[in-house]
Q: What sequence folds into this?
């Protein structure tokens, strides 16, 4: 009986060890499968990791190449995001300037509606508007090219330098004369 009991204990110990070894092997295989799936997912997501046909035949990309191409692609996406943010900033500046112009135009229309007969015999409203629009468009273009609104400090500094450069009497005179010549050529 003692021999039989020793005989039964030994396979039980081996069986326990075998189960532990098998569980460890399964866990390790699961970890490897998860890593492989991660690399496969990266290859599927990253456009530069697409399989290429080489003269020898199809070769699988190494893990190092997949990681490097993924890093390169993420850096590319960061640059694109920054470029889009800059475009949005520029568009916000345009919207701000257009809102300012809209308010000014609305004030002019309101002033005209409050006193509709003033200057009726001199110049038509359409011509006045065209002259005003031409002057404002010219100023807006230079304003838009020169002004940064990323911070109040930059805006203040840019506005003052823009006024100094683009609102000198001679510069404004040249703009007005140019617009008047343009409107005159449209009328005649």
A:
């Amino acid at each position: 009986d003692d021999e039989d009991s020793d005989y039964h204990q030994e396979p039980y110990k081996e069986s326990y060890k075998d189960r532990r070894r098998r569980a460890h092997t399964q866990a390790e295989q699961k970890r490897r499968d998860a890593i492989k799936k991660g690399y496969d997912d990266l290859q599927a997501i990253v456009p530069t990791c697409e399989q290429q046909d080489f003269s020898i035949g199809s070769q699988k990309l190494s893990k190092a190449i997949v990681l490097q191409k993924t890093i390169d692609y993420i850096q590319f996406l960061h640059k694109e995001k920054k470029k889009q943010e800059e475009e949005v900033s520029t568009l916000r500046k345009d919207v701000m300037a257009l809102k300012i112009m809209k308010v000014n135009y609305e004030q002019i229309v309101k002033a005209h509606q409050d006193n509709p007969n003033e200057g009726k015999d001199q110049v038509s409203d359409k011509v006045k508007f065209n002259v005003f629009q031409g002057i404002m468009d010219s100023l807006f273009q230079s304003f838009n090219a020169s002004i940064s609104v990323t911070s109040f400090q930059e805006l203040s500094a840019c506005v003052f330098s823009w006024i100094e450069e683009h609102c000198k009497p001679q510069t404004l005179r040249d703009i007005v004369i140019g617009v008047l010549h343009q409107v005159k050529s449209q009328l005649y």
Notes: Helices lie at 2-45, 63-114, 125-146, 152-166, 169-187. Residues 125-187 form one domain.
